[in-house]
Amino acid sequence: MSADTQDTRTGHVVVVGGGISGLAAAHRLLAAGVRVTVLEGAGRLGGKLFPGEIEGVRTDFGAESMLARRPEGVDLARAVGIGDALQPPAVASASLWNRGELVPMPKGHVMGVPGDPQALTGVLSEQGLRRLAQDLELPRTDIGEDTALGEFIAARMGREVVDRLVEPLLGGVYAGDVYRTSMRASVPALYEAARSHDTLTAAVRSIQARTAATATDTPVFAGIDGGIGTLPLAVAAAIRAAGGDIQLDRPVHELRRTAAGWRLRTDGGFVDADAVVLAAPAWAASALLADASPAAAAELAAVEYASMSLVTLAFRRSEVNLPQGSGFLVPPVDGHTIKASTFSSQKWAWADRDPELVLLRTSLGRYGDEAHLHREDAELVDVSLSDLGEATGLSAKPVASVVTRWIGGLPQYPVGHLARVGRVRTAVAALPGLRVCGAAYDGVGIPACIAGAHRAADEILATPTLVPGIPNDLGE
């Protein structure tokens, strides 16, 4: 928009946070004709969606894929012009590094919980298989309003199925402790099914039957050519093209309600707004809400986070002979340091374009385990190579490595999480022109974050003074 063009849009909304949640909210607001400013405290956009290069090859240093069977992420990619770049994994068959061997990831389970006890043959011990089968004989368990996922599954099927399969699968999503993770918040379909069936096995089978009846050709997961981290950059470009203002290195230190709306104190001075969307981590939102909503601030301050590190490695192709598949997960009960490895050049077509190089990465760190954060980069590379060598026989030395630390990267969803989110939203809803969104509320995945951002934007747009064409009573 040129300087001499009159801005006729109604209302000014400030979005605090330039991760995918904040950008999705800003994109939604702009489409409705609202003037938008995005304030991001860091020097880049995207949050945990972080594209980069290693030895000239594009890859992700953060999240690498999104659930494609939820529409929000795919729809946003298409809306900002990169729908054609969406790609399913070239290879989607993962393994489990179980008791010193790489075994194929079992089929026929819901987040590690099997519908057929024999599906875990080769993963569980004979004793573990017998304990798993007892689920069919145990009396019904009252699940209540919420329960710890790991504890519930262990009570029905035994700890071995939790430790050997559920924990590594959930660890890849939340980097959390599955024995304290909310079943209702983390696997809602399983929670609902378990409430209406006498056994956990029957609950899983009901989900599988429903999934089969509605099955489509849509891949479960999708990435984007060049890395999923290109999504926030494309959204940001669309925001700027529509006249939105995005400011980097602009942390917000204070948020106060005024007679005219809201005032935000930043390093660059004050910013006035008719409405605000807080798309920041829980601890940052808590600090900003301390004055306006002490109740919401206290609830958000109690949200815990896990930290993790990603080690991305590039090898000469002639020196590497990786197993087939997209990578492997690691049960923490076996005592290894890494929790997973992705064979990036085998999983994603765009990471396999250099005929001389092979890329892979490892992840380290879970809730309560932050030792990795205090190790030097070279040490994290060394422990990754040691575990990779033991798991796959890899003996080559990398030609390049990149270590990315995500401090406080993943919010934890313990029992009662959804009730806490409900209390936060109730408190915030009492403040006109203020909403919250982000990974701390309704899910850590990309589609869930986008859905939460759209909800926040739509509720802001429902404020009469911000609807285009209706006079703005708040002013600026």
UniProtKB/TrEMBL annotation:
It comes from the Bacteria. One of its GO terms (cellular component) is cytoplasm. Its EC number is 1.3.3.15. Residues 20-461 form the Amine oxidase domain. GO terms for biological process: heme biosynthetic process. It is found in: Cytoplasm. This is Coproporphyrinogen III oxidase. It comes from Streptomyces beijiangensis. The lineage of its organism: Bacteria, Bacillati, Actinomycetota, Actinomycetes, Kitasatosporales.
